[in-house]
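Example (one chain per record):
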Amino acid sequence: MSTGQSDKPARKASPVELRRRARRYGLQALYQWHMAHTAPYEIEAQFLSNDELDRFDQVYFSELFRGVADDVQPLDALLEPCVDRPLKELDPIEYAICRMGAWELKHRLDIPYRVVINEAVELAKAFGGTDGHKFVNRVLDRLSGTLRKAEVDARRTPRK
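Predicted structure:
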């Protein structure tokens, strides 16, 4: 008699997928922080008390969320020249995604800049406005030219 459940064990998520989920939770936490003005440590504790801890990279989530929250003013200073309007006028979701991308570009040199931009664009497609992903792509592409100039130049230089 079948219970309708598979005898196969559940597929374990890859490290890439666990980190992708950590970014999604990071975005949600940053949005909550932006909108509710709750202390970052309270928001982080709330997310880390989640019953699905094994379904995302908690270490990366904490590093990303705390990193953006602790470095918000310098990150905003990096973003300002890359946007066409005052930061306070940005959509809160796209603003949070740009901050996350800026933090990763600045602090996580082990992650290729194109991966940072792609992950941010995917978040914007899922959670942002209609053309929010285009805005996020443009901002982070400009910023990568500043923060990761050598990496960007190496990628754009034709090989001989």
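Caption: DSSP finds eight helices and no strands in the chain.
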